[in-house]
Sequence to fold (290 residues):
Amino acid sequence: MMLDIDMHNVALHYGRFEALNDVTVHMESGKTYGVIGRNGAGKTTLLSLLASFMKPSSGSIRVGGEEPFEHAGIMSQVAFVYEVDYREEQEKVKAFIETAERYRPYFDTDYAHRLAKRFNLPFDKPVKKLSSGMQSALNVTIGLASRSPITIFDEAYLGMDAPTREIFYQEVLEEQASHPRTIILSTHLVSEMDYLFDQVVIIDKGRLVLHEPYDELLNRGAAITGGADVVDGFVHDMKKLNEQQLGGTKSVMIYGELSDAKRQEAREKGLEIGPVSLQDLFIHLTREGE
Fold:
């Protein structure tokens, strides 16, 4: 089942505190979305609303054209994976996986077992005795094996070490190729995960900064490098995100697409045009206004 997500003017308030304000986003089914933002930016709030853990203070949310809150049919199509405190969880890993199968209509137990082995999870060990990294691996195993049409990972992989996270990233790519669904990855590990994203959603201080295809977003940024006076003249009317200078050489990160004519002008002036990473764009777009 393929389900589009539509959020229109969504806000969530706790008294006078605005956790989210006026967020409008359309998420097309079958794509991988990176939801990125600083700590406290509103990422978890946004995803909790999508998972029907709470209802917005205002605005509307539709999943497959239906309001998801307290809608059992829609809620069963959404898997929300996040860090959980398992200190009281007596069940062993194998039984824990089999229990998850009862609540997920598309759950693939064989795939879950294969993932558990790939993550080196001990089947006969109580969940509460797993290390934090292994508990994270168990969480993402349940999320991936759920094969829910909408699968949300809210930084559920932070306890893993780098090699284990890389296994998870590989599985995300393979799952999208073999069993397409909407996968939403909330993270601040931007440089490590950006190649997974079809679309990027940046949240800052409860507001939507941008939502664009990954490739198009990268094309909106560039690093202009050359003689300081020449660079300053070239970028004077552009949106500048960052500037660095060493002696007479200057590099300016700009946000905005460069036309073919501007690129030709840069070459004629002896300027270099370099790419900008998603992490650089994220850092400087969310730094504005501090």
User: Anything to note?
Assistant: The chain has a mean pLDDT of 92. Residues 162-178 form the longest helix (17 residues). The two ends are 43 Å apart (CA to CA). The domain at 220-287 is CATH 3.30.70 (Alpha-Beta Plaits).
